[in-house]
Amino acid sequence: MDVDRGPRRISRGVRNLLLFIVLIAIGGGVTASLSVIVPTEPTIDRQSVLIDTVQRGELVHSVRGVGTLAAEDFLWIPATTEGRVVKIQVRPGAKVTKSTVLWELSNPKLQLAVINAEADVKSAEANLQAVKARLDKELFAMKAKLLELETEHSIAKLTLEINQSLFEQDVVTENTIKMDRLKASGLKARVAIEEQGVDTFETLMPSEYALF
After folding, report:
1. DSSP character for 136?
2. Nearest residue to 146 (alpha-carbon basis) of 185, 182, 199, 184
3. Range of 195's domain?
4. Which of 24, 31, 88, 175 is 20–30 Å from 194 (CA)?
5. Is residue 103 assigned to a domain?
6. How far apart, in Å, are the Cα atoms of 123 and each of 113, 133, 206, 211?
7. What's the pLDDT tens digit per position in 68-127?
8. Is position 160 within any domain?
9. What is the pTM of this model?
């Protein structure tokens, strides 16, 4: 005959074990939930960043885009002479300064005119040198003539002084003294005329040079 003993009581050790298992299950669920909620560290494409040692200087940042780069404003600079472009020195977008040559132009007619002008200049320079040589030669001859007259005048004055002394001693006649005076006076006048001619010639020489 079975006797009803009522519900069994769970021992304390078993109850603690069950509680420990429940806590472990709850902790695992919380950890799994946090692993889903908390985001991982962000990532980035290696080709889209620049990794290098920090340096001081200019950093070039290139931006790519779809389409064609076009200028907003155009400034046309007309040339003073006709010509054709034979060489392009710089391209659109390049940095330029006030001394930068943008294009090289060519004009056959203008080049021929330059060659002819250079030939004319050389011819004029040669003519100028020839004129200078001729004028210098003429001036030298005039100065030589002036020096000769000055010498003759000095001799005539000295002769007059000597004959004047001899005339006082009755060695020469009065006519000799008169002739000496006339000669000295004439040479003095010729010297003055020649000096004036030299001065005038030297004054006119620059105007002769200015013709070339």
Report:
1. H
2. 199
3. 125-209
4. 175
5. no
6. 15, 15, 19, 13
7. 777 778 778 777 777 888 899 988 778 889 899 988 888 888 889 999 999 999 999 999
8. yes
9. 0.46
